[in-house]
Design a protein that fits this description.
homotetramer, 133 residues, mainly alpha, Substrate Binding Domain Of Dnak, Chain:A, Domain 2, 5 helices, 78% helix
Chain lengths: 133, 133, 133, 133
């Protein structure tokens, strides 16, 4: 809710379709939270040894989403090529993390939830890229 | 939604009341997004010179909330004194940022929205602190 | 080197002793890097199960140092009580992480190196707190 | 110093030339600190209105370097395409920030120092990319 209101009250014109922007920013911050939580939940499992790749990708994806969410949230004086590069790299991080979490989704509910969130964020990134043109 | 599901599917027992945890984590990530956006909106205003303190506190609050949201999201092997120190410092950051944004709320709608988000996050931090006991 | 030069060329007067500031900022960013690396090195060990608490504290300390390094680096319009709260919480994170890493220092060289870095950062935080008065 | 020691004591084989890795991680964290400081120094200048683009790129570059430094620091179970995408996007952020800071280098010493740091980080990113092959 807040992000949508912030974009509506911003003094500069939106750099892309406002709904696509809102969704991408919201999903990036939500995915950063979810991946941070999934890394921690994996760390709390008895079979942590088998979840090493998953934890690593969770941590990468959390960092990718946190940085990208901030960069996309900025509407003043953007460098479009730079913004695009981060949205694109973020979509790649979400896809890699989703693929890994999906492998554990049958055994660990937190991986199933995290994979779904990563897919939503990946889609929001790709939709925003299309909207930027 | 995701954070709530993540906490429900976490293998370790919650370190505090689960509703208070969920709300604090959600508000920390939302406040980090909102403050990042408010710093940027202030930077886009014609009277940016008069918003220097506001931008600085927005940036501090965004960093405070991002770190605290991650630390609170971790339920495995927590160091309670450390978690408490960050929730407490985060509440202080939210309060300072809210007070400054409230000074500009009549002239800048984004400061009004941001101040409200900071107050919600401050309250969520304080409620979680009470629940930890 | 860069941080020292940045503080020397900053338009506003330093908010504390400049050497103490430089050292605290440098150590916070270096400790964030070191703790990120130690969490990852622990994750790559065969006895990862026995390093779960260490990884968790590494991740907390990395987030604590990253946020505190940014907040301390800002010299324009600071809210002193807020800055103090974060330096104090950061010192607590460094101490907790150092204590845990020291438990594994005999078996894992990366934990020994990380514990030493955490102690240096803890000291730099405490020295800066004394200098702020 | 710490990052070099951490990579030397890591249980997994380095994912790229160790000197190039060390330098890239060190420069990413140093550039994150320098850009955070430059954004703040610009905010403290009397002609802040003329430095709006510079502040925005400083903030983007700080976030880009912080995330990339963390992702590159991880040597356990890396997803190479993802790591490459972030190093590449980080080099673009450093280049854009350096170009903007260079425009103000004659008037603001902190922009000159920051531009030099951004160029070092850009080079370290590109050297690491070449070393990964």
């Amino acid at each position: 809710m807040s992000v949508q209101e912030m974009l509506q009250t911003h003094p500069r014109p939106a750099t892309a379709d406002r709904d696509a922007l809102t969704r991408c920013i919201d999903e990036c911050f939500r995915c950063a939270a979810t991946c941070t939580s999934c890394a921690d939940a994996c760390l709390g499992e008895e079979d942590v040894q088998g979840l090493v790749s998953c934890i690593r990708l969770n941590l990468d994806c959390a960092d990718a989403c946190a940085a990208t969410g901030r960069i996309v949230a900025r509407q003043t004086a953007p460098e479009v090529a730079l913004v695009r590069a981060f949205i694109d790299a973020c979509a790649a991080a979400c896809r890699a993390c989703a693929e890994e979490c999906e492998r554990h989704a049958a055994h660990h509910e937190h991986c199933r939830v995290c994979a779904e969130e990563c897919r939503r964020c990946e889609e929001a990134c790709n939709d925003l890229l299309s909207s930027i043109g």
